[in-house]
Amino acid sequence: MVRPVSIINIETVVHMPILEFKNVSKIYDNTTKALTDVSFSVDEGEFVSIIGPSGSGKSTILRCINRLVDVTQGSIMFDGHDINRADKKEIRQVRKKIGMIFQHYNLVERLSVIENVLHGRLGYKSAISGIVSGYTEEEKEKAFQILAMLGLTEQAYKRCDELSGGQKQRVGIARSLMQEPRLLLCDEPIASLDPGSSKVIMDHLRVINETMKITCIANLHQVSVAMRYAKRIIGITSGQIMYDGSPDELTKSKIYEIYQSDEGELITDVR
C-alpha cells in the first residue's frame, strides 16, 4: 500500500530584530524632552546611521540602548533582553555584547595602545583579575590581530597620548572588537577628525559590518557620510523620528525638515 505523501509547509525564515525600541520617551529632570514616542527596530547585520541636529536626541538613543540612562517610558529589547527591566547582572551581560565608540575616544591616555585594547576584555573578568591585568595569551594574540587589521601594529607599545586623533579612534574600535560585540554603537565617531582620518574610520566600520557581520548604529552629523556608508538612515528632530528609510530615498526636502536648514550646508564629503 502506497502511503500518501505528506505536504511539508516550508515557511519563510523570519529575521528577528537584534534591537527594538517600542514607544520610548526620555525626559530629563522632569522638564526636558529628549525622546518622544520613538519606535524602530534594527535587524542583525544592518548598518544604520542616525542623523539630526545637535540636541535632537541622537546620543540619548545610544545611551538608552546600553542603559547609561534609563528611559522614562516605553521598552527596549536587545538580543532577547528587556533592557529596562534587567538587573545589574543582566546589564553586565548585555554590555559585553555592545561595543561603544566615542567622539572623544575615552582611552586611558597614559597607557599603551595594547593595554587600552585589552581593556575590552574587562567585562569578562572578575574585579581582581582585571586589576592585576590577568589577560590570557589567547586574548593578547587576538588583540594584536585586531591591531594588525586596523593598521596599528607599529603603535602597539606607544602611549595613547602620543597618537593622532585618527589613530586614537582606531584604538577605540579595536577595544570594542575585543568585546566580541554583536552591536557597535558609534557616537559621532568622526566629529573630531579631519576628512582623511574620517574616511579611514568609516571604511573600517564598513568592513567590520560587512565581513564580521556586526550590527552598527552610528550617529553622524555629516549627511553625505551617512548616505555613503549606511544602508539605512534614521532622521531625528527634537526627539522624534522624521525619517526612516534608505539613503536613496532621503530627499532634499526631508533633509530640510530634519535640520531646518539647506542641505548644502550639511553635506561634508569624506574623500
Describe the overall structure.
- By secondary structure, this protein is an alpha/beta fold.
- The chain has two domains: about 15-95 and about 180-270, Rossmann fold, CATH 3.40.50; about 105-180, no CATH class.
- The chain has helices at about 60-65, 90-95, 115-120, 125-130, 135-150, 165-175, 195-210, 225-230, 250-260; strands spanning about 15-30, 30-45, 45-50, 75-80, 80, 100, 185, 215-220, 230-235, 240-245.
- The strands form two sheets. Strands 6-7-8-3-9-10 form a six-stranded mixed β-sheet, with helices on both faces. Strands 2-1-4-5 form a four-stranded antiparallel β-sheet, covered by helices on one side.
- A hairpin with a 3-residue loop joins strand 1 and strand 2 (about 30-45).
- Helix 6 runs parallel beside helix 7.
- The chain is globular and about 50 Å long.
- The protein starts with 16 loop residues before the first strand and ends in a 12-residue tail after the last helix.
- About 40% of the residues are buried.
- The model is unreliable at about 1-15 (pLDDT under 50).
Give me a quick take on this structure.
This protein has 271 residues and is α/β, with parallel strands linked by helices. Helices cover 32% and strands 23% of the residues. It folds into 2 domains: 173 residues, P-loop containing nucleotide triphosphate hydrolases (Rossmann fold, 3-Layer(aba) Sandwich), CATH 3.40.50; 77 residues, no CATH class.
